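hey m, so remember when u said the C-alpha cells were messed up on ur end? i reran from scratch. heres the input so u can diff it against urs
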Amino acid sequence: MVEYEARDISPEMSFLEMLDVVNERLMERGEVPVAFDHDCREGICGSCSLMINGVAHGPQRGTATCQLHMRTFKDGDTITVEPWRARAFPIVKDLVVDRSAFDRIIAAGGYISSATGGAQDANQILIPKETVDTAMDAAQCIGCGACVAACPNGSASLFTASKLSHLGLLPQGQPERYRRALRMVARMDIEHFGGCTLYAECQEACPKEISIDTITRMNRDFLRAGLSAGRAAVAGSD
C-alpha cells in the first residue's frame, strides 16, 4: 500500500477526477502515476472497478465508481483504494485487473438461433410486460465484477445469471436456453470463480442493483439442462 495526498479536491469532483488530479501531480514531480481502469465515466461500461474503503464501488449503493462524488467523503478522510481481489481477476498493475474471464464466460454461451428471411415485426411477438421488465433488469449488468469482488467465495454467479436471464426469458433465447446454461456455468468453473452460497453480498455491491433472483433462475435452468442431458445419454446407450 502507498499513501498519496490529494489536495485542493472539489466536493463536486467524481472519484475518478480526484485520481486524475493525484496522477497529474505525481507526473509533475516526475513520479509514476497510479494505473486505474476507466472509459465511459457514465456508469455504463463497468471499467471503473475499484474497492473503496473495503466496499466495491464505494459507500453509495447503486453507484459505479465513476458516479461517486467526493462530497460523499469528509475533508481530511483517509480513503483506502484497492483493486478487485479475486483469483479469477489477476492484477495487471496497481488498481487494474484482468477481467477477461467474463468475456470467456459470455463467449461460452454462443449465439442465438435466428430464422433467415424477412424480420418479423417486433409488435407481433407478444411478451408479458413482467417478463420483459425482468429480462431488462438482468440486461443492465455492465460486467464490472463488483459481484465477484464482494463475494466471500469470489463467485461470478450474479454476472453469469444476469447474462443467462436476459436471453433465457425472451423468445429469441429459447432454442439454446438450457445448453447455454450448461456451457456458461461450466466455463465459470473453469475460470476458477468460487461457488455461490447465497451470501447476497453481490446483490448489495451491484451498481445496477440486480437481484439474486437471477441466480435462482440460472440454477433451475442448469439443473433442468443437466437432467435432460443425462436422460439423452441414457437413451443413447439403450
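this time it looks ok to me. Residues 88 and 191 are 6 Å apart (CA to CA). if urs says something different then somethings off w ur setup not the seq
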